[in-house]
Amino acid sequence: MKLFEHVPARLLASQEAEESWLIEGLWSQRAVGIVGGEPKCCKSFLALDMAVSVATGRACLRRFGVREKGPVLLYAAEDPLHVVRARLEGIALAAGADFESLDVHVITAPKIRLDLREHTQRLFATVEELRPKLLVLDPFVRLHTIDENVAAEVAPLLESLRALERRFHLAVVLVHHSRKGAASARGGQALRGSSELHAWGDSNLYLRRKGEQLLLRAEHRAAASLDGDLFLELRDQEGSLALHVADEPSTSSPTPSPEERVLDVLKGVPGAMSMRLIRERCRMRTATVVDVLEQLIEEHRVCRQPDGYTLLEHV
Fold it and tell me: Rounded distance, CA 46 to CA 37, Å?
């Protein structure tokens, strides 16, 4: 029987820490992972900023240096091609890079389905020809027809992207949505679908809004993460619309999320509280309260009792 290849640990290739980043602090070299967040959190802008940075060698978000530049392959499934061009032009301008020589290659095919063997083979062939440093796929929901909640269906798609990384030594950024109403959950736990997605990533970037503030958090499998949240803002400077690191967070008091409002109300009572009373004290629509409570129950933070709802810590 043929054996799996193996070598003594002492013969494994070593890599100095300073060589382990593709984008310092944000994305590890040859990492696969997720750029995740709820709608309107600038996930696509962040992925495009990463693409421009790797293609030009300019700092991502005007702060995070690129160790080695190279071609980038991009598939933006939800945006018209003229919108993709306009965004790339704006980011290149903000980065001080020449758009005309930008080494970003955009896949113009109407669709890519990673659950179809023919499409996966075509993606492999495209990567083999271009040999990009970075592959950006945006978003995951447009790349398949499977059930995202079934690990057995999600895992083969993610493994095909891992196989791309291993075969062609590139990094892979997969843009993905968070669950509805999951703003208060930890980044990876808030992702929509199977937990395979969070577990798959070597580097993961999570965007969320807190009131008017846009926050970014980085997680890495084999490197130190950023210290806390990073505040970002989308700026329009002379036609260059791009994300920038905010020097100081907004001093205005952020508006509590629906989840935070419900939790604050429940913390104020020792027993259970009815749906009607929660709605009145939160001053929210019944449909919103119902959605929030269902999410909090799913996250095991709230439980439903015969006389109403209560925090699990009170049970």
Answer: 11
Distance CA 200, CA 280 (A): 42
The whole-model pTM stands at 0.75
Show the tokens assigned to 174.
């997969």
Q: Between β-strands 32-37 and 171-177, what pairing exists: parallel, antiparallel or unpaired?
A: parallel
Question: pLDDT tens, position by position, for the chain (315 residues)?
Answer: 888 888 889 888 765 544 589 999 999 999 999 999 988 899 999 999 999 999 999 999 999 999 989 999 999 999 999 999 999 999 999 999 999 999 999 999 999 999 999 999 999 999 999 999 999 999 999 999 999 999 999 999 999 999 999 999 999 999 999 977 655 556 667 898 999 998 999 999 999 988 778 999 999 998 888 888 999 999 988 778 999 998 755 555 567 888 888 898 888 777 888 988 888 888 888 888 888 898 888 888 899 988 899 888 654
Calpha distance 231→271 (Å, rounded): 37
User: 201 has which bridge partners?
Assistant: none
Q: Tell me the sheet residues that pair with 209.
A: 214
Which amino acid is located at 302 in the chain? V
> Which sign, positive or negative, has the C-alpha torsion 78, 177, 64, 134?
negative
Q: Does residue 116 share a domain with residue 30?
A: yes
Q: How far is it, in rounded angstroms, from Cα 200 to Cα 196?
A: 6
Instruction: Domain of residue 208: give its range.
Output: 19-245
Nearest to 60 by CA among 106, 89, 92, 104: 92
Residue 152 lies in a domain: yes
CA distances from 247 to 59, 156, 232, 251, 278 (A): 16, 42, 9, 12, 38
Indicate which CATH number applies to the domain containing 279.
Answer: 1.10.10.10
